Amino acid sequence: MEDNFQSAYQEEEDRLNHALVEIDATLEKLRSTPVYTGHDYTEQVLEDSREQKRKDLAKLRQEPYFGRLDFQGKDEEERKALYIGKIGADREQVSDRPLVIDWRAPVASLFYSFTGGTELASYEAPEGLIEGLVYLKRNVVIRKQILERVADTYNRDSDGPAVSDEFLVYRLGENKDNRLRDIVSTIQEEQDKIIRAAKNTALVIQGVAGSGKTTVALHRLAFLLYQYKDQVSAERMIIFAPNRMFLDYISDVLPELGVGNIMQSTFPDWAAQVLEITLPEQDAAETMNRWFETSGSMPVITEETPGRFKGSTVLMEIIESSIKLLEGGAVPEDDFIPWEGAVLKRSVILHWHNEEYAPYPPGKRKERVMARIHRWIEMELKKSPSAAALKERKKKGAQREKAYSAKWPKYDPLNIYKQIFRAVKVPADWPEGPPVLIPAAVLKETARELKKGILREEDLPPLLYIHYLLNGNEGKDRFDHIVIDEAQDFSPFQIAVLDLYVKGHSFTILGDLSQGIHAYKGVHAWEEMQSLFAPEHTAYHALTRSYRSTMEIIEFANIILSAGVNSPLLAVPVFRSGNPVRLISYADHLTAAAGEDPRSRAVAAALAALSGREYRTVAVLTRSLREAQELHAVLVQEHADIHLIDGSMTSYQGGLSVLPVYLSKGLEFDAAILADADQDHYGPAPWDAKLMYVGCTRALHELWLLHNGKLPAYVQATEDVTINGWPEA
């Protein structure tokens, strides 16, 4: 076995050296080619291509590839060693195979989909289905041109196991820093199917915590740009993330994959840009305070909760009816008379509005009708009998044209939204009372806030929809693809509006219902979103394997989910064992000094115990922001570099952090400490259990739960996954 390993290592080291020589030679040739700076378009295109190759090869020479697949097509005489990397590279000399095959190429899919066995394997190529035999599947780790690791996960010529998770476990065991990393070398079969799914599909992905769904979605963008390069562009793609800090956290993945210029935003930021409005920063904080910072039970959530109702398609129907009312009464009642003796009949204006310009949305229809009226005025002015009359008519005509335009409805989304909720006076031809489908409590609260100038995140989809109905959306303003992360926190209304801004229903919608801690605004079942699309335009995938945490952490978190939420969406852990979950009563195991908070003392002791590990990221998770602030004020005295994450940050710094558990969703840490995992902080409701589940599943290698001795019923101290008490010194 040792001889086989040495032979494989030597073989791969020799191949790496040859590859580096060829890469350097090609790069030197490109760098020695003078850069074209002229104005000839063809030469500019060629220069752009050369510059891209220079950048790709410069990156490639550090880590040329990560995998090898020996494959023999059914109609081929010999097997070929195919090397797979993040960036493809051709050889200088004509060859039957590239120097490096791009991981997105059709044949590279075998590296991810092949799971062992002696039967024929196959992959879809442009020319059709290609079948053949896989002889070797090998993972290699190359860093800064040095071969660090060689691991065969399949070898037809050996007596070893068909496929091993040894390499995957090795990569998962690495410690985290402050950025999400690509998984291109460890993509699993079920993830690869999602990455390579057809473009014009609203793909809904239910992924358990740690299933890699965010990373899969980012790799899917890179694949779509490769596979559909003539149909899509990076500039017309967008990623919607839950907050700006999360955008920073994922910001390195796409550049690592050689992809740039993809828009990344939160939904509120993008909506405010489209609507050309400024949102108050305190809205998000106020919402979090309402739902997460109050003591006692969480407010009851029903279909009449403002966020749930305003996120429903019922409000879409109300808006559509309101816009039709405006359209029906848009043209003023009187004829247009710019000056005495000139009359433009209302019937003519109605004909223009209702027939000639009928295909246009109301806002653009009004613009065209008013432009037509202006041209009519100019034609009439030419009939003036004298220069003095022309001057007088021109002045009077301009005044009356302006006055006539003011009689039309005010096609402003916010004003119409206020009219719907009766926060301002409504047009005379509207029904006197408010729409009967709006719940009284929602109507009252929304009207009160709109009168004060308060806009909530839940008001943005309705405003966007009104904007769309008034102005339409030209093709140039539509996205080629939209990724929505943490989609369980989006409403059906948000998805329906975004569908108006994307071509061909091209979505990647990903989330986890078990982490639906924003149930006051998000969906409770994926059917709420899938029902928006025709069956042929949507698909559903479930990712059940968790690659983030150890078996001990996943099994413990599953108990919380099963007992506290009665959820069937349990994670299947990868075989990676670690330290037991520690469930510790700080009241019993530590004696605080006089006046000292026992919880702060326990957290400090836990951090001291973890300091001996080589962890890059450690998080202390509290139930509320107030408690995070209080705990940070104490801990910073001993840990000057500890960060407080309060929702206002735009970047995640890594290292040691204190934050409320509801702000940790989407992040992951080498170790996590839940500072207050007791009944005083986590009640019996499923929502509380989901919050604790989110906290537990942030940890990769080690999880500690501190409590005051009173545990929620769904936290069960099973012997094989927990230890009560402090670790031995």
Describe the protein's architecture and organization.
InterPro entries: DNA_helicase_UvrD/REP, P-loop_NTPase, UvrD-like_ATP-bd, UvrD-like_helicase_C. Residues 186-550 form the UvrD-like helicase ATP-binding domain. It comes from Paenibacillus donghaensis. One of its GO terms (cellular component) is cytosol. By secondary structure, this protein is of the alpha/beta class. It folds into four domains: 2-164, no CATH class; 193-281 and 472-546, P-loop containing nucleotide triphosphate hydrolases (Rossmann fold, 3-Layer(aba) Sandwich), CATH 3.40.50.300; 330-406, no CATH class; 551-724, P-loop containing nucleotide triphosphate hydrolases (Rossmann fold, 3-Layer(aba) Sandwich), CATH 3.40.50.300. The protein has 25 helices and 23 strands. It is globular, with a radius of gyration of 31 Å. The two termini are 39 Å apart. The mean pLDDT is 88.
